[in-house]
Design a protein that fits this description.
The chain is an alpha+beta fold. The protein has two domains: about 240 residues, Bira Bifunctional Protein, Domain 2 (BirA Bifunctional Protein, domain 2, 2-Layer Sandwich), CATH 3.30.930.10; about 90 residues, Anticodon-binding domain (Rossmann fold), CATH 3.40.50. The protein is built from 15 helices and 16 strands. The chain has an eight-stranded mixed β-sheet. It has a five-stranded mixed β-sheet with strand order 13-12-14-15-16, with helices on both faces. A hairpin with a 7-residue loop joins strand 9 and strand 10. Helix 1 packs antiparallel against helix 5 and helix 1 packs across helix 11. The two termini are about 45 Å apart. GO terms for molecular function: ATP binding; histidine-tRNA ligase activity. Its EC number is 6.1.1.21.
Length: about 400
């Protein structure tokens, strides 16, 4: 019978892979807590409208990549392709839009997109996500970015990673920029890809994100939003950059970073690296001032980012080491009860401890070496009668008798 395999675009997290994944999550959880972020968890699937409203019907995610299905009650549901829309929905549906704003939220979990699997990109993938919900000030943009930078530093992946930042301006700036883009791309309409011609009618900013090579050549000559900023938008952008400098976050400006949806405004940013090939973005986000309204709530200015755990895991300089256990080894059946007592005493003292389920002294010692044990506690009838244990250092090869009550303290 043929062995079953993981579905294409998914993978198991085992051993070193899981330890890398866990290190990213726990580091992000720890650093974000220092900034005052609280952790939320939302359902893995949502009403499809959460994402069709939040991401827009013309986005590639909605039109090509979402895992949507009809349940037995006829409801259209979607496995979440990203976190932000669901967090904004949670803010509204839990009645949190009028009290204690801003809400600083950390979240992590699996996402689902039907796209071509490639290095660091899967159909089931995982993200860490940070949002400040209900803050209009440029300091919120800078702080959420600084927290991301500190996470990258704590992971040891900041070398070779750079923050690229841009502004999308306010509504007036975007309207002027949109008009300039329509004029420019209309002059090149016949050369644009089919998707970009559709976007020209619906949302010309999306053309700037096109992956089509011909489109990209045309985009290279397109107007930049910096030439269309209002004074207020320019001041907001200057304040974000000043705060980033004060926080010690290095950055460079990239006028081609955009977000195509109408409710995005002001700051857009990406942390990019040259260590992952063509897919070089490891963390990306920006300010969005209308998404909570799309979920049925009041106007709630917000800013945030998401980062792919798989990509960050690949950048870790080395995998975290698995904890090395202590092997508890009874010699003879009569010693097993005392061995079990010792096993639990070690665990209660915070020591990783294991016992082989069967085998003589030789086989149990062989297993201790296979699992990388750092020490062995050997218990025979004579040792137990004397209230002692043989404590063997498996690295140094030394062995000594130690009172049973002192063993957990010696190994903790």
């Amino acid at each position: 019978m043929t062995a079953l395999q993981p579905v294409r675009g998914t993978r198991d997290l085992i051993g070193e892979d899981f330890r890398r994944h866990h290190a990213v999550v726990e580091t992000a959880r720890r650093i974000s807590a220092l900034y005052g972020f609280e952790e939320w968890a939302t359902p893995i699937f949502e009403d499809t409208r959460v994402f069709s409203r939040g991401l827009g019907d013309t986005s590639d995610v909605v039109s090509k990549e979402m895992y949507s299905f009809e349940d037995r009650g006829g409801e259209s549901l979607t496995l979440r392709p990203e976190y932000t829309a669901g967090l904004c929905r949670a803010l509204v549906s839990n009645g949190l839009t009028q009290t204690n704003l801003p809400r600083k939220v950390f979240a992590t979990g699996p996402m689902f997109r039907y796209e071509r699997p490639q290095k660091g990109r899967y159909r089931q993938f995982h993200q860490i996500d940070l949002e400040v919900l209900g803050a209009a000030e440029p300091l919120a943009d800078a702080e959420v970015i600084a927290c991301g930078w500190d996470i990258l530093c704590a992971l040891g992946v900041s070398d070779g990673t750079i923050l690229e930042i841009n502004t999308l301006g306010d509504a007036e700036s975007r309207a002027a920029y949109r008009a300039a883009l329509v004029e420019y791309f209309s002059a090149h309409k016949d050369a644009l890809s089919h998707d970009s011609r559709v976007r020209l009618e619906k949302n010309p900013l999306r053309i700037l994100d096109s992956k089509d090579e011909t489109d990209r050549a045309i985009v290279a000559g397109a107007p930049v939003i910096g030439d269309h900023l209002t004074e207020a938008a320019s001041s907001f952008y200057a304040a974000v950059k000043a705060h980033l400098t004060r926080f010690g976050v290095p950055f460079r400006e990239n006028p081609r970073i955009v977000r195509g949806l109408d409710y995005y405004s002001h700051t857009a940013f990406e942390f990019v690296t040259d260590r992952l090939g063509a897919q070089g973005t490891v963390m990306a986000g920006g300010r969005y001032n209308g998404l909570v309204e799309e979920m049925g709530g009041p106007a709630t200015p917000s800013v945030g980012w998401a980062a792919g755990i798989e990509r960050l895991s690949m950048l870790l300089p080395q995998a975290p080491a698995a904890p090395r256990p202590v092997a508890v080894i009874p010699v003879g059946d009569a010693a097993e009860g005392a061995a079990l007592d010792m096993l639990q005493s070690l665990r209660r003292a915070g020591v990783v401890a294991e016992i082989a389920y069967r085998g003589n002294l030789k086989r149990r010692m062989e297993r201790a070496n296979r699992i990388g044990a750092r020490a062995a506690v050997i218990l025979g009838d004579d040792e137990i009668a004397a209230g002692m244990a043989q404590l063997r250092d498996l690295d140094a090869g030394t062995q000594e008798k130690v009172p049973l009550v002192e063993v957990p303290g010696r190994l903790a």
